[in-house]
Amino acid sequence: MSALELSHIGLSLGGTPVLDDVSMHVASGEFVSILGPSGCGKSSLLRLLIRALQPDRGEILVGGALLEESPPAFAFMPQRDALMPWRRIIDNVILGLEVQGVRPAAARARVRPLFATFGLDGFEQHYPAQLSGGMRQRAALMRTIVQDRPVQLLDEPFGALDALTRTEMQRWLERRWQHARWTTVLVTHDVREAVALSDRIYVLSPRPARIIAEFAVPDRRPRLGRTLSPEAVRLEAALLDTLLTPTGDRS
Amino acid sequence: MPALLRTFLTSIRRSLPAILSVAVALAAWEIYVLVSGISALVLPAPSRVIGQIAANRALLWANTLPTLQATLTGFAFSLSLAFTLSVLIDFVPRLRRALFPVFVISQTLPLVAIAPLVVLWFGFGLTPKILLVALVTFFPMLIALVDGYESTEPEIEALLASMGASRAGIFRRARFPSAMPYFFGGLRISITYAVVAAIFAEYVGARSGLGIVILNAKNSFRPDLMLAAVVISSALTLALFGATALLQWLVLGWRQAGAVR
Ligand SMILES: Nc1ncnc2c1ncn2[C@@H]1O[C@H](COP(=O)(O)OP(=O)(O)O)[C@@H](O)[C@H]1O
Ligand SMILES: [Mg+2]
């Protein structure tokens, strides 16, 4: 059964059509990327899932149940890290648990062992402003993961980082994901990133967004830090082609 | 708390130029009075004013307390009102459009006209002082809070909503803390207005207070005693200003943390 299934989603914002008939599915344990040009409606798609927006048309199923009727299924990582500058890192990380009703002391005890895994050992008591961009992003990711929700939604998590830090973070995420196999929906406009991290990739057209292609990534993991296979290189070229000639007639 | 001590010493060092320029101005004043032989009934020398503070310390102290009480009570009243209304406005945006025009108009009323009326209605006790302090400080504090709530990062609100937080939870965890820097900005300005408003209310009509000392000194042609009361009221204002700065430093510790890196 799919962890997540969208069928024929349509959405307009302030009279502007943003999403036009989007259908996709994500299996449990799968890493799926949504690739599309800036402003095509990727963030809006995630906002539908966290129910900050309502679709005009279509249906969203979570674990087989309608989104409105299913228990909270998504842990969301917004486009900017959205760490609260007045909270220490550990208190930012437990935010989701706190909202779920876990007592702060218990929540802190639960997340403390994870700081080493996320490369934040010793920074529990720091404030976000004292951390580098990469560390802040890892803290935001940790805040997402510890909520222990069935599906992780990541909105361009590395978009604001410099190239070197971004590569480092992608490698780190690949290693973590291979261990944990979180069901993940990654939104990005970075072809390299999508190919490196995903099981499958959906390509969106410019606004109003439709799905113009779907690709499975054949390569074995880990992919980063090695030469890509000829298939993956061809896939990157095909993705770039699709994005640059977004008429949709390639698929 | 050595960090607090360090901050204190740094601020002393930073204020040295200010202390120096004030000292130079006072010295020039003293010398001018000495050389020109101007009457103390027109322009008393700083040394004479200080002498008056010493000579009248019992009177000044007895009248500083009522002013301090009026300032703090009025300001506390105004703060609680501003906070309560800011929360109501945040949850019921329509209230904002209903109430803001009234508050804006309240800020256009000239204090010289309002103060005697308020004294006329409420007598010479504490009540008119409290009301005038509140009238002057309420709106700036309300604006600071409401603007502060609005400054919340939308991504943080979306994040909290995605976690299942209620509107009240979002207010408590995001909107209220986001408003704190704005709140303290408003607090520092308003506390100085509050002292001035309390003294003005006393000047218009009260049984005691620094405003009364100033009024009586004026009526008996004693500019030296007037200035002595002014020095005390300035010291009071500075002390309250310092207290808010200290409070801000304690509450917004995370901002210093960010500045250090
Ligand atoms: N409230 C709104 N009213 C009108 N247009 C909007 C609104 N919110 C977003 N949009 C438009 O929807 C499009 C998609 O936005 P978004 O989902 O943030 O794109 P992406 O994340 O792919 O860059 C953008 O072109 C944006 O201008
Ligand atoms: Mg976006």
Please outline what is shown here.
The complex is a heterodimer of chains A (251) and B (261). With 251 residues, chain A is of the alpha/beta class. Chain A has 9 helices and 10 strands.
Describe the structure.
The complex is a heterodimer of chains A (251) and B (261). Chain A is α/β, with parallel strands linked by helices. Chain A is 33% helix and 25% strand. Chain A folds into two domains: 4-73 and 149-249, Rossmann fold (3-Layer(aba) Sandwich); 80-145, no CATH class. Chain A has nine helices and ten strands. In chain A, the strands form two sheets. A six-stranded mixed sheet of chain A has the order 6-7-8-3-9-10, sandwiched between helices. In chain A, strands 2-1-4-5 form a four-stranded antiparallel sheet, with helices on one face. With 261 residues, chain B is an all-alpha fold. Chain B has one domain (65-259): MetI-like fold, CATH 1.10.3720.10. In chain B, helix 3 packs antiparallel against helix 4 (93-108). The A-B interface holds A 47, 50-52, 72, 74-76, 78-80, 82, 84-88, 95-96, 98-100, 126-130, 147 and B 153, 155-156, 158-165, 169, 173-174, 177, 180, 252, 254-255, 257-261. The site of adenosine-5'-diphosphate (ADP) has 13 residues of chain A, from strand 2 and helix 1. Magnesium ion binds at residues 42-43, 79, 155-156 of chain A.
Write the layout of secondary structure elements.
The complex is a heterodimer of chains A (251) and B (261).
Chain A: E1 2-13, E2 16-27, E3 31-35, H1 42-49, E4 57-62, E5 65-66, E6 74-77, H2 89-93, H3 95-99, H4 104-111, H5 114-117, H6 133-145, E7 151-155, H7 163-180, E8 183-188, H8 191-197, E9 200-204, E10 211-216, H9 230-244
Chain B: H1 2-36, H2 46-55, H3 57-91, H4 93-108, H5 111-122, H6 126-150, H7 154-162, H8 167-204, H9 210-219, H10 223-251, H11 253-260
